[in-house]
Amino acid sequence: MKSGSFFLLLSFVNVQLFAFVMGWILISAGVSVTEDPSDVNNSVSLFFTILITAAVILLILKVYKGKLLFYLLELGLVFTAFGIFFGTMGFGNLVFGANGFDFSNVCTGKELFCIDFSFLGALLAVVARALLKNYRNIFLLFATSIVGALLGASLDIVPAAILAMALSIYDIIAVFYTKHMVTMAKELGNRDAGFSITFPANFQKNMVVPKVSAEKLKKFYKKVQVNAVELGTGDLALPTMLMVSAMKISSVPGGISPWYGIATMLGSTVGMSLLFFYIEKKKGYWPALPPLIFFGLLFLFLYHILPFKL
Questions:
Q1: DSSP state letter for 173
Q2: Which residues of the chain have a pLDDT value below 50?
């Protein structure tokens, strides 16, 4: 496995591990964006929401040639994810009064100012992202783990599995048949949009240069080598959602079974590893969700049918 694939695999594992902790916290706190996590209709509505979002992005890419909009969307993702994170941690409000700075769950109106800490933390995260331009991957990985954990906490395993399988089929169609996912990936890459995690395929041999920058560098280099391994944020969020949903499988209502989640995470990691070995030989664009979801569900099923449980 080349160095780029290894670091992307390591990033995938880190997203899963952090989402595992966040998922545990969200499930324990009863946090959900759906009224009934067991309702299969949630899968249908989320599936069509994702399809409509993809269609809107394709339309925007066709009529809008700039970069600013996608940059603002990325900052919006960072703001939302960090807002959820700080809100879940329960810091309350940051207040400044007679005793200086303090944290409080209630604003009385007597303070000089009182601001929700989750809002302040999210705002500072956006500022940090804007200033630390070389650390975009870290912010995206963190944001993706939060989104995946929240989706997993909001869906039970059956709706989550249905949604994951439906999107896997869609991924195959969008990459191999309609090819609009390939078009989207190329266009978003040219706009430097933060909807994927990218590493040089080989840190020692290759240099990743966006197509726009490559044109500017032609007079300095006889040949600009563009060779990278890339994974969409959706390919990170969906296996994460499935893992967190699997943690909710328990004989006790509202209980948490970490081993189901760990089994799913191991399966997705195996799927990711096999995908990278295959891609390094074949090159090109390939749908990532099918092997990730297939092996995630396979390992979940194998653990479920074991005669003993940890």
A1: I
A2: 204-226
What kind and span of H or E run contains 93? Answer: strand 93-97
| Distance separating alpha carbons of residues 186 and 90, to the nearest angstrom | 40
CA–CA distance from 197 to each of 66, 126, 194 (Å)? 20, 18, 8
Q: What distance lies between CA 80 and its chain's CA centroid?
A: 13
Which of these, 297, 247, 306, lies nearest to 271 by C-alpha position?
A: 297
Give the predicted TM-score (pTM) of the model. Answer: 0.82
Spatial separation of the C-alpha atoms in residues 39 and 159, rounded to whole Å: 7
β-sheet bridge partners, residue 197: 231
Domain coordinates in residue numbering, the chain: 3-68+156-304
| CB-neighbour burial class of residue 104 (10 A; exposed 0-12, middle 13-18, buried 19+) | middle
**Beta bridge partners of residue 115, listed in sequence order:** 94
Report the Cα–Cα distance between both ends of the chain, in Å, rounded.
32
- In the chain, the amino acid numbered 286 is W
